[in-house]
Amino acid sequence: MSAVTRRTVVSLAAAGAVVLPVARALSGPHGKGTSERFEVNLTEAQWRTKLSPAAFLVLRQEDTERPFTSPLNDEHRRGTFACAGCALPLFASATKFDSHTGWPSFYAPLKDAVRTRDDGSLGIVRTEVHCRRCGGHLGHVFDDGPKPTGLRYCMNGVAMTFAAATA
Could you give the angle at the alpha carbon of 65 between the alpha carbons of 86 and 16, nearest 5°? Predict the structure, then answer.
């Protein structure tokens, strides 16, 4: 199978209004039925109260926000991007780069911040990225990023918050 390219992902995202709901209906949330355990565990009702409707759809139901809609895509200050579900720091701003895909992208997460698992929900195998503390879906990682890692952590901005560095 060929590698997933940026063009493929953007094309799939454009078709997302049709493809994603069907894929979710067929596959269900990726974390369902796994033995993975998380430090932060809330009921669905508690998550719905805690999160905005858009953040709930992405973090808890593995939805994808529309490209170019997140203010974090244009966030260029020094600081830290954290999980919108549990506030775990995920990415340093020094690792952020403009991937021209419409989603905040990073070449490396902070140490022990994220976990990954295979995601075949669109009929192709991708690597899903989730918060290691609450299990919230953040996005996917691809192997077409810049040096030094060659990785592109393509994250949903609605799944994160940003705190600017002080001083």
Answer: 140
DSSP string of 101-138, one letter each residue: SSS-EES-PPTT-EEEEEE-TTSS-EEEEEETTT--EE
Catalytic residues: 154
Q: Which domains does the chain have, with CATH numbers?
A: 6-164 (2.170.150.20)
> How many CB atoms lie under 10 A from the CB of residue 82?
20
Contact 83, 112 (CB under 8 A): no
For 44, 57, 142, 154, the CA distances from 127, given in Å and listed in that order, are 25, 19, 7, 11
Return the amino acid letter for 10: V
**SS3 assignment, position 2:** coil
Yes or no: say if 38 and 133 are a contact pair by the CB < 8 Å rule.
yes
Task: Tell whether omega for the bond before 29 is within 30 degrees of 0, i.e. cis.
Answer: no
**Six token digits for residue 87:** 């506030």
State the helix-helix crossing angle for 16-27 and 6-14, rounded to 10 degrees: 90
Q: What confidence tens digit (pLDDT) does each residue in 73-107 have?
A: 999 999 999 999 999 999 999 999 999 999 999 99
Residues 6+ apart with CB under 8 A from 41: 134
Does the reported pTM lie above 0.70? yes
